[in-house]
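To illustrate the input format used throughout this study, we show a single complete record. The first block contains the structure-token representation of the backbone; no residue identities are included at this stage. The design step must infer an amino acid for every position from geometry alone.
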């Protein structure tokens, strides 16, 4: 009985009060904790952006949640089946009476988990073809501008610049980024895409080759170069890219997506440019070889020319036969000129013999005959042309007459239709005018009746008179009439002149109507209350 009484006397809690008390107890006693376990039930971020899953080991499980903002800032994202170490705050969820951990930081549990995650991500990206050798680009032999994506404060950039200055000085553009920690992967990817976005021939020169470099470190330190965003940016780069992350034994996923992998940043600088002194020595060797080849060619051509000159005959031998032909032609020139003159003379004489008077007359007659024939043909052609023109004009005249008749007929029909339409419109206008006159006459009669009804003359017919003063203005009160004033009285049947008497007329007060006898008093009506509220 005592126990029952004690239970009855115990204070009562509502469910919300009890849940709040448990929540405060759990949060006060535990606060921030680090929990190691395997991620279970993770299906990616919720539509709200929050992540819900569980952490489990061999015998227990605890619910976990990552809020949207924290998940966005996380460098290491949760994945199903991955063993992790979660740092967060232990709290309760009153709606389902369970406790959970609100994770603020997440990291893999050991190197083995990171390697497993890296291998899984490598298989995924390789299946997409990002590591295909056919996608690799050849490095330029001697780039003009070299772009470097690295930290501006580390020893890596100094090593690269020192090696470039030793081998072959080139223009270097440095895009400073974080190479470790939160946000470093995004900065590296943005730098690669930023170099690729530079226009050709712009104010800032576009690099011919890119070097993504970082010094050595642990797998956790180099993890930014295993992120998908960095690997995809390297694979999408249109500028040849050299990966120089870590030392020779360090392997990251960007090494597989890059066009060339360098074991160290210094080796990347050596891959980017050749050795200037070696190039100058090679150029000098080529120059000497070219000079020797040219000299040998000149000597060979000189020998060939000498041999050809020895095989040629002497100038006298070459000109002997042409000189003999010239002498023979000079000797036969005078005889040829005389023969040519005689031939032309004979031809002239033959032509003069043919030019007699009879021949000229015959030619004149032939010309006159041809002229006569041409005149007859011309007159015949003129008559034929005139006849054809006359026939054509007669046909055109007939067509014109027919068209004039057709046009006159069409015009008469158009005039007849217009006349009929005009007559119809005239009839309609006449009917409209008669209707309008009837309406105006009715309106005028109505206005006359209204005027007669409102006129003062209808009042005069009932026995009243209108009093006017000398100027013809109507008088409305007895106070307006002075003694001796000339008045004019208008009756219904005429007007009469009058003069006001010497005595001032007495103003009569209108009698007040007597009050009606009072009946029994009725009780006052009580005003009905309108306080009924409002529907709106």
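Output of the design step:
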């Amino acid at each position: 009985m005592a126990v029952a009484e004690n239970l009855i006397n115990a204070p009562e809690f509502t469910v919300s009060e009890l849940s709040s008390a448990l929540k405060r107890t759990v949060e006060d006693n535990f606060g921030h904790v680090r929990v190691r376990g395997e991620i279970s039930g993770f299906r990616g971020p919720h539509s709200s952006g929050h992540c819900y899953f569980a952490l489990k080991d061999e015998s227990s499980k605890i619910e976990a949640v990552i809020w949207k903002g924290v998940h966005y800032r996380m460098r290491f994202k949760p994945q199903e089946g991955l063993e992790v170490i979660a740092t967060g705050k232990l709290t309760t969820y009153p709606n389902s009476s369970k406790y959970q951990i609100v994770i603020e930081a997440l990291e893999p549990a050991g190197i083995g988990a990171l390697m497993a995650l890296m291998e899984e991500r490598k298989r995924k990206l390789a299946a997409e073809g990002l590591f295909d050798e056919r996608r690799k680009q050849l490095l330029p032999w001697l780039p003009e501008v070299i772009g470097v994506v690295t930290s501006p404060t580390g020893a890596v950039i100094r090593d690269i610049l020192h090696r470039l200055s030793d081998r072959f000085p080139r223009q270097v553009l440095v895009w400073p980024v974080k190479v470790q920690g939160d946000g470093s992967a995004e900065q590296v990817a943005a730098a690669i895409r930023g170099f690729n976005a530079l226009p050709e021939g712009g104010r800032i020169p576009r690099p011919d080759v890119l070097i993504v470099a970082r010094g050595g470190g642990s797998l956790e330190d180099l993890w930014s170069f295993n992120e998908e965003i960095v690997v995809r940016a390297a694979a999408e780069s249109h500028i040849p890219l050299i990966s120089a992350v870590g030392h020779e034994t360090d392997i990251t996923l960007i090494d597989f997506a890059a066009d060339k992998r360098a074991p160290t940043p210094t080796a990347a600088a050596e891959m980017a440019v050749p050795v200037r002194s070696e190039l100058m020595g090679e150029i000098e060797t080529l120059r000497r070889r070219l000079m020797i080849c040219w000299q040998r060619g000149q000597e060979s051509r000189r020998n060939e020319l000498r041999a050809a000159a020895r095989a040629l005959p002497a100038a006298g031998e070459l000109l002997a036969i042409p000189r003999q032909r010239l002498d023979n032609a000079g000797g036969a020139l005078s005889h040829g000129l005389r023969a040519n003159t005689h031939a032309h003379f004979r031809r002239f004489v033959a032509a003069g013999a043919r030019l007699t008077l009879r021949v000229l007359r015959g030619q004149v007659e032939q010309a006159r005959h041809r002229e006569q024939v041409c005149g007859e043909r011309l007159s015949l052609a003129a008559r034929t042309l005139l006849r054809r023109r006359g026939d054509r004009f007669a046909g055109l005249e007939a067509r014109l007459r027919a068209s004039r008749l057709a046009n006159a007929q069409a015009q008469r029909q158009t005039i007849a239709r217009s006349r009929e339409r005009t007559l119809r419109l005239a009839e309609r206008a006449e009917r409209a005018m008669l209707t309008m006159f009837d309406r105006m006459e009715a309106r005028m009669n109505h206005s006359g009746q209204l005027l007669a009804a409102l006129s003062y003359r209808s009042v005069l017919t009932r026995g009243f008179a209108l009093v006017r003063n000398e100027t013809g203005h109507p008088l409305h009160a007895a106070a307006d009439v002075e003694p001796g004033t000339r008045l004019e009285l208008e009756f219904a049947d005429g007007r009469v002149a009058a003069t006001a008497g010497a005595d001032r007329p007495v103003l009569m007060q209108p009698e007040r109507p007597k009050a009606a006898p009072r009946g029994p008093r009725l009780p006052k009506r009580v005003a009905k209350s309108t306080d009924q509220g409002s529907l709106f």
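Structural context for interpreting the output: The first strand starts at residue 32 and ends at 40. Residues 37 and 59 are 11 Å apart (CA to CA).
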